[in-house]
Each structure stands twice: as C-alpha cells, then as structure tokens.
C-alpha cells in the first residue's frame, strides 16, 4: 500500500525525523493562508499523488508570495499529474504547502528488501535528487549499499561506514545522519514497510539534514496489524480495476497486452502469461482467482476482465484442485448473465469436477472456444486477439 508524501512526513515526525514545516490544503485559499502561516520568503507547493518524479512533471513549484502559492495550488488541484512513473496521470486532490529550504547538497536514502540476498538493504548516494534513476543505470557504484540483519536491525557502525563513503565527515552532520539511518531501520521493521525512501535528504546551508521528500510503501500482507496505517489509504490514487479486484480479494495486476487471463494459482498464472508470450501474444493482466473462488468471486473477476477495453480475447485456464471446475463454470455463466460477453472466450478446464464444468458451459449456450490443453488455449487466445479465429 502506498501513502502520500504528507502522510509519510506525519509518520516521520512521530519518529522525530527532521521534516520541513508544511500544511496540506485542498483549495487555493487554504494554500494562500498556509503560505502566510508558514511565513518563509519562499514556499514550495507540492502535488500529492502516489507517484515520484513530480518535480520534473511540474508537480513541485516554488512560490515567492502567498498569492503565488494560491495561484499554483489552483492550477494543480482538480487536475491530473502525469509523470514518467505514471503516464496516465493521477488526480491531484490536495497539495502540500511547505517551507522553502536552503539546499546545499541532495542525498538519496532508500531502504527496501533486497530479494537476492533476502535481507533489507540501506542505499545511500551523494548524487541524490531528481536524477537518481539515471544514476542507478549509468553509475550504480555511486549508490552505497549496506545489508541489514533482520534479527538486529541496522547497527551504528554500518551507518557510519555509509556516511564516510558518501562524504559525510563533519562530526555534527555525521551524528545527525547516523540518527536518521537508525530511525529509518527501526521504522522499516516496526511499520512493516516494504520501502522507505528519502529523495532528497538535503544538507542545508545551515548545516542540518532535512527530509525534503518522503515515501513509505507498506507490505499489504502485514496491514492487518496496522489499522492506523490502513486508514491512510487514498483510493482515488488506485487504478479502478485494481481497486475492484481488491474489493473481491482477487490478485489482479493490469498489464499492457490484450489477452485477458483468468487463472487459479499464482504459479499457473505466471506460466499462462509465459505461454501466451511464447506464442506471440501479450497478456492484459495477471489474475489469480485463488483457491477459494466462489461463483460470485469468479463472476466479479470475469466482469473485471470484460471492463478492460484493451482486452480483445479472454483465456480462462483453470486447473481445478481446491477450486472446482463447476464453480468456475458457474461463475462464467453468472457473469455472462450480467454483462454481455462480446469477446472471444477460450476455456481450458482440467481437474476436479471437470466433466460437470464442461457440461455446464456447453449447455449454457455461451459462445465458448474449448481448448484441450494450455498450449492449445494460449495459441487460440493469441489468434483470437488478433481477430484471426
Ligand atoms: P519528486 O521526487 O516527486 O520529484 P520531491 O519532493 O523530491 O518530488 O521534490 C523535487 C525537488 O524539489 C527536490 O529534489 C528539491 O530539489 C525540490 N524541493 C522539494 N521540496 C522542497 C522544499 N521544501 N524546499 C526547497 N526545495 C524543495
Ligand atoms: Mg523526490
């Protein structure tokens, strides 16, 4: 789960991490008042959307007067911000009006799970700011990494080691940095975060570190034990299809292709996508209906696929184990009653109650293209999506 920068900064404050003074506002007048209240010669108006790269996309702007802050806010709020991370754009419902900070240096600080070594990793770079993605590609050696033992968390010597490597040698700055790094590690574990990122962590002209940007992503599987964090969710920032899937507890990820997939089990879902690609097609989604699919859930999943205009053909690939084939058939028939099945549907059913499932589909009068196995189904789906079946 993602949250907004202003929410992440609230959490930072609770952990006593240094953040600029700021006020979140929902309209131009409030923005003007906020700028007055902050009282700094320059304020920064920052669009609150669940995407990075806002600076480059015009979502972070300096204002030299409260009136200007109001004007910028009125231009942002109610519009969408398109960034390279999210080309379709996300709605801007509020902006953070923040005290302008005198930046001397910008560092990158990130903490996430390194799946290759099964440990969290703290990453820091002196080349922080808006170009960090470029740096990661062209000069990865400029990003210093330290792995964290999950049983004990980050140790102070590790933080000091990183600090020296990125050129933080001043005694005062060093102790501030170590404190920040230690706090991040504590937060990461306590909050079940999957990512904490400060980009940039700035060194000010006054010789202080301040977290200018703040990002926290949370591990969805651990949210049940963080009710307060769950409440921070802003569903306006989530793709409507993914939101609907979440409502039904379906594992759905939208992709760029045109073959809608409905599969049970993540492994089979991955294999199905691979097979589609192998035969020259592109999956429109990853969808695992799981092992406990009821007719209602299958119907919801099916409607979800049909509501994606990119989908040109649907491939249902079910290996009935715990989820029985007759339930899947029932779900498809139920969904077809509610929404028009206006695209080719290829079905491969195998496993528990397969005969009953096939019979139900045959007798339903629906226009279904049966597949004898996965390869056959994938090939038919690829052809159908190209309009050649
Ligand atoms: P994003 O990462 O989405 O582009 P940031 O919050 O990192 O957004 O802001 C982009 C850039 O704007 C920062 O790298 C920094 O240079 C500048 N900036 C952001 N907040 C402030 C602030 N309060 N004072 C001065 N400059 C800021
Ligand atoms: Mg940033």
From TrEMBL:
InterPro entries: ATP-grasp, ATP-grasp_succ-CoA_synth-type, ATP_grasp_subdomain_1, Succ-CoA_synthase_bsu_CS, SUCC_ACL_C, Succ_CoA_ligase-like_bsu, Succinyl-CoA_synth-like. GO terms for cellular component: cytosol; succinate-CoA ligase complex. Its EC number is 6.2.1.5. Keywords: ATP-binding, Ligase, Magnesium, Metal-binding, Nucleotide-binding, Tricarboxylic acid cycle. The keyword Hydrolase does not apply. Pathway: Carbohydrate metabolism; tricarboxylic acid cycle; succinate from succinyl-CoA (ligase route): step 1/1. Residues 9-227 form the ATP-grasp domain. GO terms for molecular function: ATP binding; magnesium ion binding; succinate-CoA ligase (ADP-forming) activity; succinate-CoA ligase (GDP-forming) activity. Its cofactor is Mg(2+). Mg(2+) binds at residues 199, 213. ATP binds at residues 46, 53-55, 98, 101, 106. Binds 1 Mg(2+) ion per subunit. GO terms for biological process: succinyl-CoA metabolic process; tricarboxylic acid cycle. Succinyl-CoA synthetase functions in the citric acid cycle (TCA), coupling the hydrolysis of succinyl-CoA to the synthesis of either ATP or GTP and thus represents the only step of substrate-level phosphorylation in the TCA. The beta subunit provides nucleotide specificity of the enzyme and binds the substrate succinate, while the binding sites for coenzyme A and phosphate are found in the alpha subunit. Heterotetramer of two alpha and two beta subunits. This is Succinate--CoA ligase [ADP-forming] subunit beta. It comes from Desulfurobacterium thermolithotrophum (strain DSM 11699 / BSA). The lineage of its organism: Bacteria, Pseudomonadati, Aquificota, Aquificia, Desulfurobacteriales.
């Amino acid at each position: 789960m993602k949250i907004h920068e202003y929410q992440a900064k609230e959490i930072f404050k609770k952990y006593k991490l240094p953040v600029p003074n700021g006020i979140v506002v929902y309209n131009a007048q409030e923005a003007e008042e906020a700028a007055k209240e902050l009282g700094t010669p320059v304020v920064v108006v920052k669009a609150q959307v669940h995407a990075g790269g806002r600076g480059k996309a015009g979502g972070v702007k300096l204002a030299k007067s409260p009136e200007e802050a109001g004007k910028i806010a009125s231009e942002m709020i109610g519009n969408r911000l398109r960034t390279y991370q999210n080309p379709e754009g996300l709605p801007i419902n509020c902006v953070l009006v923040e005290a302008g900070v005198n930046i001397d240096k910008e560092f990158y600080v990130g903490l996430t799970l390194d799946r290759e070594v099964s440990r969290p990793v703290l990453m820091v770079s002196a080349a922080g700011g808006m170009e960090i993605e470029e740096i990661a590609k062209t000069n990865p050696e400029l990003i210093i990494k330290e792995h964290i033992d999950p049983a004990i968390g980050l140790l102070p010597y590790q933080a000091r080691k990183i600090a020296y490597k990125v050129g933080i040698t001043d005694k005062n700055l060093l102790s501030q940095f170590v404190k920040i790094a230690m706090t991040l590690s504590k937060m990461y574990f306590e909050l079940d975060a999957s990512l904490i990122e400060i980009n940039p962590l700035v060194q000010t002209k006054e010789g202080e570190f301040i977290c200018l940007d703040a990002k926290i992503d949370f591990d969805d599987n651990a949210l049940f034990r963080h009710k307060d964090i769950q409440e921070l969710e802003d569903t306006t920032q989530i793709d409507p299809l993914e939101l609907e899937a979440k409502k039904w507890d379906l594992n759905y990820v939208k992709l760029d292709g045109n073959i809608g997939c409905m599969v049970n089990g993540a492994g089979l879902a991955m294999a199905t996508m691979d097979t589609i690609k192998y035969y020259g097609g592109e999956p429109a989604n990853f969808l695992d209906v799981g092992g406990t699919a009821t007719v209602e859930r299958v119907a919801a999943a099916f409607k979800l696929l049909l509501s994606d205009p990119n989908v040109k053909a649907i491939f249902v690939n079910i290996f009935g184990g715990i989820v029985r084939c007759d339930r899947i058939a029932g779900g498809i028939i139920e969904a077809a009653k509610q929404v028009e099945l206006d695209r080719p549907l290829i079905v491969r059913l195998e496993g528990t109650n397969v005969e009953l499932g096939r019979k139900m589909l045959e007798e339903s009068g629906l226009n279904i293209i049966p597949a004898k196995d996965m390869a056959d189904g994938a090939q038919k789906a690829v052809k159908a999506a190209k309009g050649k079946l």
